[in-house]
Structures are given as structure tokens and as C-alpha cells.
From TrEMBL:
UniProt-recorded name of the protein: Sigma-54-dependent Fis family transcriptional regulator
Pfam annotation, one family: HTH_8
GO MF, one annotated term: ATP binding
Superkingdom to which the source organism belongs: Bacteria
SMART domains membership: AAA (SM00382)
Organism lineage: Bacteria, Pseudomonadati, Pseudomonadota, Betaproteobacteria, Burkholderiales
GO biological process: regulation of DNA-templated transcription
Regions of compositional bias (Low complexity) in chain numbering: 19-33
Region Disordered, annotated ranges: 1-43
Keyword Nucleotide-binding in annotation: yes
Keywords: ATP-binding, DNA-binding, Nucleotide-binding, Transcription, Transcription regulation
Length: 703
């Protein structure tokens, strides 16, 4: 079978065919699906344009152990929703020489489960945790191609661009959040001889289950409207779900709702219960207050009938709706955002933070550097000064941006976050500026207003701004100066009013010197630059720990056993507060019933990492005294700091100076190649024979 099918007549008709997209053909050899063939053809074209080779060994280097830990921590929420669904999916395909794979939004495999024998074969082509399966790394493949096309994708046998992957058949579905952002990809990969046409349907249904769990979790404190044109489908995977704010605005939707209503996420968010179904929040509260209430029949403005069923937390919801109806905007703009009252809180996935205060106040746990940052920001709040937040991954840059928004006069307007690093270069422009229907061959769905317009009136948070392709920086600068956006393929411009907050872990000045970042854009974005300290530099570790523990376990005060405290203080925390938060969240669950967190409640991974940190410090510092970090606070009386006991031996491979120096050499080689290529990553990747992604990844995690 040829891996490259000629395009169907009519040529480039690949996207917008979501429902028909990449569905498996009855027999792979004789029946063809034109949309599928066209998608594969376009993917192969992209791979050829990237200079990928079909026969060379693909980039098999997985993320380093701690990088994988960080990637997993960043995606812990995705994993916790996906894990039970993956188990269930695996039950369905057991003994079929297959595996179930979960990746993040960049295509990096976070977790996999599968038949042992097949897992071994898959590992040989790096189909294993830590490996990246983006198209630019592995060529045409179901995960990478699904990430680009944003539709369920089947890639079978020699449809894979690289010969090494021809033994595989892979069915992948993107997992989207209620705002339409890609969270990751669920995939079933197996031996191509074990291909079964039902696999794709199973994967799509499973992805939908994860999305629905995510939505329910995001909006558990707001009204959720379950809908379908056929009453018997309410409560099934086929139902649509809408999240409704107390003022009746639609703030979130699952895929089923978008499909049934025939609206894009952005279009739906312009609607309210009234404009959509001619009903109101109070009508639904009255009707569905009783658990025995039956679904209600409504009609859309164009006369299509639907059955709807509302769920909400009674009686919290009714008191909230009353408050929403009686309060003025001025009085609500600084209300407690933990209540489900402000639309912008609902529209964006909630960030889990300790419940002490809201807005900027919640960040104050006693660290002087953080206090200085907050003080500076308060002075420029509401002054139309763009803020640039610097800091390592997981230091709380996005949390700070949300807090600034919450404390600003724009708090009732949208907060829209765009992660420039997780969107492929080719899509950032469309994602930010929007596009008209059919604007370009890569255009998906029915046009899009773009993130800048979505943020109109509110705050646009450009995360990882250092990853914005240089070609696009001039476009962004123009928009920021003129405050007008012209969607791709359109001649009409839209006036926008947005507050800009950017964040990066990179050194933008160095990037300017290397001509990778425009100086004029830098000065436009940098009205005020603040740097969030790494966790290891902070003096408030204990206060932060206690606040997170109190939040995780409000009924039962938890504390750390002395040796755990000791481990925490020794740890380098490469994942910063995100890592701390995740470690404590797991520990609080593990400690159910106990009031003290002991080593037994910590994951082995973390203990290893912390011990390695100990070993590194012990090596760097004088052997006799081995002081705690100069900035470490004194332990509370209940948890005395013990003299540092010798740590349990770290795993051989981690402690080995040879392993570490090899890593250093690799990094050094990458740095040199990038320098010699004048900062041109594509050129450096060719010289080194590794993908651009790998270079970005390795440099990113090391910087
Ligand atoms: N001060 C804090 N108190 C409690 N939790 C925090 C704090 N700062 C960060 N966190 C936790 O850490 C997680 C990561 O924070 P955030 O996403 O803001 O970091 P970031 O610097 O933007 O990360 P990245 O650079 O990887 O995007 C948050 O979800 C939150 O749970």
C-alpha cells in the first residue's frame, strides 16, 4: 500500500470535515476516504517542507527524567481526568497488540498503558513517556497531525511519514477544554495488522468523556445545562453541556453542544440563555430545584427544538444569582472570586490557589521579593501600562497575571491566556488575530475571531512571549500600537481595547542581541518588568506549604513530619510552586485520616529528586557544616529541623558524575551549535541532526 495518496479531485478540501474526518475505512486496502487522503497528503507536504527525512532515524531522545516530571506536573489535571478513561479504553482493546497513549498539547507522551509485548516494540520507536510525537519531530503521525488539524486523526501503516513507524496503526483524538483550547491528545496505537475500524470511535468517545469531566470540574459551581434534540440522549455521551453564569451568559460548552447548536465557542459566548432558548436563569432555577423535575422543551430562535435539563448547587446557586441580580458592577468587581459570581472567573479554568484572600493579596505569604513585585504592580494598576512577568516555569506567572486582572477595573471582562510556546508557529497568527472562513488552507472550522478580539475589554495574557516567531512580532507590535486587529483573509479591522500582560522564562535582552526578539516590541511590552523568584530562592516555603495544605484539607489541619520538612528544604524544586502544589495535593490525599504528612505520603519520584538536590548541595557546600539554604526559614516548634542525616543513596544513574557530565556535554554541544548558527534554531537542528523541538526543549528546561 502506498503511503501517499493522490489528492481527491477538487484538491484541498481537508478541514471543516470534522465529522467525516479521518474515520477509518472498512478495509484499509480498497476503500478510500478523500478527506482522510487529503489530510495525509497535506501532512506529508508539511513534513517535506520541514526537511524531515523518511528514512533517517527519527528523533528518539526522550525528555530527561526531571523534565518529564515537570511535564507531568504541568498536566496533572489532564492526567487525573484521563487516567480512569485510559484504563477503561485499554480494557476494550486488551490483547490486541495495542497501547493507549496520553500526550500534552505539544505532543509529548505523558503516560501510556498497553500490552507488555507491544510496549516493548513501541519503545523501540520511542512511543513511550517523555518522547515527543509532534509532526515536526516524528513526521506524519496520528498525535502530531491531530494536534495540527485539531480533529480526530487516523494514521495507518505507511501513511506515517517515517519508514520506522510503518508497522503502526494509530487513532488519535484531540482533547479540548470548554473554551476550545487543546489540552492534549488521546491515542491508541497498535500493530498495523491489528487495525480495527471501531478503534477510532472508541478513542473519540473516550476523549469526549475526558472533556466532559473537565468541563464539569471547571464549572462545578455554576449552572450546567444538559441538552439534546432527543430527550433520551440527555445524560449520555452524546449530550451537549453548556455552562451558564448567574447573569445568564454562556461561559463554556462541550463539543456536543457546539455541534448540535452549530456555533463556534466564540459565537456561543456572545449568547445568553435568553438569546439562545428564550428562557432565564430564574426560570430554570425554579424548575430544576426539584430533583424530580423532567427535562424541559425549548426552541432556538430559528425554531429548532431542544430538551434541556439544568444542574446546579442548590442552595448556593440561588443565593449567588440573587446577589448577582442585586449588586452593581462596582460592588461586585472586588467580591470574593472564590464565589461563582464573576463571569471571567467562570470563563477561565479556575487556578487552584490557597483560599487566603483573592487577587494580588493571595500571593503574599511572607517573601520579600514577592512583596516587592506586588507593591510595584499595585502602583501601575489601571494605568494602561503593559506588564512583563519574568520567572522560571511554575513560579506563578499566570497566577500573578490573573491576580492583576482580578484586582483591575477590567475584572468583569474576559481574561484570555495564550501560550505562545504550545501553539505551532504556523498557527499562532491565526490563533491571535483570527481569520475569516476559508482564509487559508490550514484554516479549521468556520473562521475565528482570534484571542485578541476575545479579550476585548479585558486582559490578554501572552505566556512564553519569547517563543513568538520573529516574523509575527512585527504584526503584534502593529496591533498593539494601532489597537486594531484585521483577521487573516479579511479587509475589515476591529478596534480592540485590551490590557497586556506578557510572561517569559527567557532572557529577552539576550534574544534581542541574538536578533531573535524585536527590540521595539520588547519596549512596547515592557512598561513594567517584574521577576518572580524561583521557589528555592523564596523565604516563605513553610508559609506556602501551610497555606496550600490548609486549602487542600480545610477540615483537618495537616503538617509535615520533620524529615519531610527536611526533604522539602533540601529540594531544588525545578518545577517551583507548581511542583510543590502537586506534591502537597497528592500527599494530602494519601494522608487521609492522618494529620502529619510523612515520607509514605510522598511519591518515590519526588523523594529521589529531593535527595538528589540534597546530594548536589552537600557536594557544593562545606562537608562539615552543610547549612540549610541561607534563605530557609526556621522550622516551627512542632517540626524541628533535624541535623541533616545522610540521605538514602540516590539511584546510580542519577548520582553518576559520568551521566551528569554527558548531559552537560550534550547541552554544551547544543549551545555551541545554536551560537555558530547565529541563533538560527532550524540551522542548528540540521547541523546537529536533531529536531528543533528537541533543541527548544533541552535549552528551555536548562535555562
Ligand atoms: N503563590 C502561590 N500560591 C499557591 N499556588 C501557587 C502559587 N503560585 C503558583 N501556584 C501553583 O502553581 C501552579 C503554576 O502556576 P502558574 O501556571 O501561574 O506558573 P507559571 O510561572 O505561569 O508556569 P509556566 O511558566 O510553566 O506557564 C498554579 O496552578 C498554582 O497551583
Amino acid at each position: 500500500m502506498s503511503g501517499y495518496y493522490p489528492p481527491a479531485s477538487g484538491g484541498r478540501q481537508r478541514r471543516g470535515l470534522e465529522s467525516a474526518a479521518r474515520t477509518a475505512t472498512a478495509t484499509r486496502s480498497n476503500s478510500r476516504n478523500p478527506a482522510h487522503e487529503s489530510a495525509i497528503e497535506h501532512s506529508h507536504e508539511r513534513c517535506a517542507a520541514l526537511g524531515l527525512s523518511r528514512i533517517e532515524r527519527p528523533d528518539h531522545s526522550p525528555l530527561g527524567r526531571s523534565d518529564l516530571t515537570v511535564a507531568r506536573e504541568r498536566n496533572l489535571r489532564l492526567y487525573s481526568h484521563a487516567a480512569p478513561v485510559m484504563e477503561m479504553l485499554f480494557e476494550q482493546i486488551i490483547n490486541s497488540e495495542s497501547m493507549v497513549v496520553l500526550t500534552d498539547a505539544t505532543g509529548t507522551i505523558l503516560h501510556s498503558i498497553g500490552d507488555d509485548e507491544f510496549l516493548g516494540r513501541a519503545a523501540k520507536v520511542a512511543l513511550a513517556p517523555g518522547a515527543n510525537w509532534s509532526e515536526s519531530s516524528k513526521g506524519t503521525n496520528a498525535v502530531g497531525t491531530a494536534l495540527i488539524d485539531e480533529v480526530p486523526t487516523l494514521v495507518h501503516a505507511d501513511e506515517h511519514f517515517m519508514h520506522a513507524n510503518h508497522f503502526l496503526t494509530c487513532s488519535a483524538a484531540p482533547i479540548l477544554d470548554p473554551r476550545g483550547n487543546i489540552l492534549g491528545v488521546l491515542d491508541v496505537s497498535g500493530d498495523q495488522r491489528s487495525y480495527h475500524q471501531h478503534t477510532m470511535a472508541l478513542v473519540k468517545m473516550s476523549a469526549r468523556m475526558i472533556e466532559n469531566h473537565w468541563l464539569t470540574d471547571d464549572y462545578r459551581n455554576v449552572m450546567r445545562l444538559h441538552l439534546h434534540s432527543r430527550v433520551e440522549f440527555i445524560g449520555t455521551l452524546m449530550e451537549g453541556i453548556l455552562a451558564v453564569a448567574p447573569d445568564g451568559k454562556i461561559v463554556g460548552a462541550n463539543r456536543g453542544a457546539l455541534e448540535q447548536l452549530g456555533l463556534s465557542g466564540a459565537a456561543l459566548r456572545m449568547h445568553s440563555l435568553g438569546s439562545l432558548f428564550g428562557t432565564s436563569v430564574s426560570t430554570l432555577v425554579d424548575r430544576f430545584r426539584s430533583p424530580l423535575a423532567l427535562p424541559m422543551q425549548v426552541e432556538t430562535s430559528d425554531g429548532r427544538p431542544f430538551h434541556i435539563y439544568a444542574r446546579f448547587n442548590w442552595p448556593v446557586w440561588t443565593s449567588v444569582t440573587e446577589a448577582a441580580h442585586t449588586s452593581t458592577p462596582a460592588s461586585t468587581s472586588h467580591t470574593d472570586n472564590s464565589k461563582p459570581i464573576l463571569p471571567e472567573t467562570l470563563a477561565a479554568p479556575p487556578v487552584s490557589v490557597p483560599a487566603a484572600g483573592t487577587g494580588l493579596k493571595q500571593l503574599l505569604t511572607g517573601d520579600a521579593q514577592v512583596e516587592t513585585v506586588v507593591g510595584k504592580i499595585r502602583r501601575v494598576l489601571n494605568r494602561d501600562i503593559p506588564i512583563l512577568v519574568l520567572g522560571e516555569t511554575g513560579t506563578g506567572k499566570e497566577l500573578l497575571a490573573r491576580a492583576i486582572h482580578q484586582d483591575s477595573e477590567r475584572a468583569r471582562q474576559p481574561f484570555v491566556a495564550v501560550n505562545c510556546a504550545s501553539i505551532p508557529d504556523t498557527l499562532i497568527e491565526a490563533e491571535l488575530f483570527g481569520y475569516e472562513e476559508g482564509a487559508f488552507t490550514g484554516a479549521r472550522r468556520k473562521g475565528s475571531v482570534g484571542k485578541i478580539v476575545q479579550a476585548n475589554g479585558g486582559t490578554l495574557f501572552l505566556d512564553e512571549i519569547g517563543d513568538m516567531p520573529i516574523g509575527l512580532q512585527a504584526h503584534l507590535l502593529r496591533v498593539l500600537q494601532e489597537r486594531q486587529v484585521t483577521p487573516l483573509g479579511s479587509t475589515k479591522s476591529v478596534t480592540v481595547d485590551v490590557a497586556i500582560i506578557c510572561a517569559t522564562h527567557r532572557n529577552l535582552r539576550e534574544m534581542i542581541a541574538a536578533q531573535q526578539f524585536r527590540e521595539d516590541l520588547y519596549y512596547r511590552l515592557n512598561g513594567l518588568a517584574v521577576r518572580l523568584p524561583a521557589l528555592r530562592e523564596r523565604t516563605d516555603l513553610l508559609a506556602l506549604v501551610q497555606r496550600i495544605l490548609d486549602q487542600q484539607s480545610p477540615q483537618r489541619r495537616l503538617s509535615l513530619a520533620p524529615d519531610v520538612l527536611h526533604l522539602f528544604q533540601s529540594c531544588d524544586w525545578p518545577g517551583n510552586v507548581r511542583q510543590l502544589f502537586n506534591v502537597l495535593r497528592t500527599a494530602a490525599v494519601m494522608a487521609a485520616g492522618d494529620s502529619v504528612i510523612t515520607r509514605d505520603h510522598l511519591s518515590d519520584d519526588f523523594i529521589d529528586d529531593a535527595q538528589r538536590g540534597w546530594a548536589r548541595r552537600a557536594h557544593a557546600e562545606t562537608p562539615a557544616a552543610v547549612p540549610m539554604s541561607a534563605t530557609a526559614p526556621a522550622a516551627p516548634p512542632t517540626a524541628p529541623v533535624l541535623p541533616l542525616a545522610p540521605p538514602a543513596p540516590a539511584p546510580a544513574e542519577a548520582a553518576s558524575p559520568v551521566a551528569r557530565s554527558l548531559q552537560d556535554l550534550e547541552l554544551e554541544a547544543i549551545r555551541q551549535a545554536v551560537e555558530q548558527a547565529g541563533g538560527n534554531i532550524s540551522e542548528a537542528s540540521k547541523r546537529l541532526g536533531i529536531s528543533r523541538n528537541t533543541i527548544y526543549r533541552k535549552l528551555r528546561w536548562q535555562s
